[in-house]
Specification:
Blueprint (H helix, E strand, L loop, with lengths): L16 E6 L3 E5 L12 E5 L2 E7 L6 E6 L12 H7 L11 H7 L9 E3 L5 H4 L9 E4 L3 H7 L20 E3 L29 E3 L6 E5 L8 E8 L2 E5 L7 H4 L8 E2 L5 E2 L5 H17 L3 E4 L4 H6 L10
Parallel strand pairs: 5-6, 6-7, 7-8, 12-15
Antiparallel strand pairs: 1-4, 2-3, 4-5, 9-10, 10-11, 11-12, 13-14
Length: 315
């Protein structure tokens, strides 16, 4: 019998965080590339959801502000030629407001953000890092090597800006496999741990059980998600690009496969089987733990139903 999934109980002086959704622009996706049994002519404009997380220490009353993902760049000329070619296939797009504007409209200056955690470094999630001159950047293991060298013929380095991040302020999470090699200049000192019954490894980012970064392999090298405790018995799981349609998480649709141009098949994920494993772990979280809300980055339905939870509102 599979081990039942349980999340850590609150401590005596448990810290809870607040989460506010942020607009990070929008793009248009052909459904046939993302879900099974799709109408080949259907294209859907979806958001690139980003989030502000505020963590206040009960002992010091100091608040740390963390942004998860940065959405689209407002200036498309800052993308590489290869990225712009790809973006041309994702029109229409919108970059107003972007994350920096969304923060300002909510009364927060981008310069005051303490930490930026990127789920991964695809063009519609990396945004404009230069808007955050004082932030520490945290990325998943393997991200810096991907930016510098690409990730194989389907993910050439031309699809990434090698100097995208402020490397003096960028920290990479260590590999889950302690024997794995990494090209990271700086690594966080976090240690991976397991939660009973959960198929993804996590790090307790603040060390108080309030925010866990989850290693979420499959979509892209270094892809991570975030699990946050927002109240007694209430959690929010930010799934990034674990999938591009919530029906996949619910088991109503599968991951679409299409030609890789070399006689084989591929999906929008760098490792489809690993992506299925990540999706299975998140699906189990949804089924077995009460009080967990799962939000993926491109869920247009969630955005329309939850406009009041965008900054200054909260989840």
């Amino acid at each position: 019998m599979a081990e039942k999934l349980t999340l850590p109980p609150p401590s005596a002086n448990q810290t809870y965080v607040t989460i506010s959704a942020l607009d990070g622009g929008s793009l248009t996706l052909p459904e046939s590339l993302f879900i099974t049994d799709a109408d080949p002519s259907k294209r859907t404009t979806v958001p690139s959801l980003c989030f502000l997380i505020r963590h206040t220490s009960p002992s010091t009353s100091k608040t740390i502000t963390l942004v998860f993902d940065l959405g689209l760049k407002r200036d498309f000329t800052k993308y590489t030629a290869s990225q712009q070619h790809h973006i041309a296939q994702r029109q229409p797009t919108s970059t107003s407001p972007d994350v920096a504007d969304s923060l300002r409209k909510g009364g927060i200056q981008p310069e005051d953000i303490d930490v930026v955690v990127l789920s991964h470094v695809h063009w519609d999630h990396i945004g404009t890092p230069s808007d955050f001159p004082n932030s520490k950047f945290v990325v998943g293991s393997g991200t810096l090597n991907l930016l510098a060298n690409g990730g194989g013929y389907l993910y050439p380095k031309e699809l990434f800006n090698h100097d995208e991040l402020p490397f003096d302020r960028t920290y990479e999470l260590p590999p889950v496999d302690p024997g794995a090699k990494t090209a990271a200049r700086k690594q966080t000192e976090h240690k991976w741990e397991t939660l009973p019954g959960f198929g993804l490894d996590v790090v307790d980012y603040f060390g108080d059980g309030s925010v866990f970064i989850a290693d979420s392999p499959g979509h892209l090298f270094g892809h991570v998600n975030l699990l946050a405790r927002v109240g007694e018995g209430r959690w929010v799981y930010l799934g990034g690009d674990c999938c591009h349609d919530v029906r996949i998480l619910k088991g109503e649709k599968g991951i679409a496969l299409y030609s890789d141009g070399c006689g084989g098949s591929r999906s929008v994920h760098v490792d489809t089987e690993a992506a299925r494993g990540t999706i299975g772990a998140i699906g189990k979280l949804m089924r077995e733990v009460e009080g967990v809300e799962v939000v993926v980055a491109h869920d247009g339905g969630w955005r329309e139903e939850n406009r009041g939870r965008f900054l200054p509102g909260t989840l």
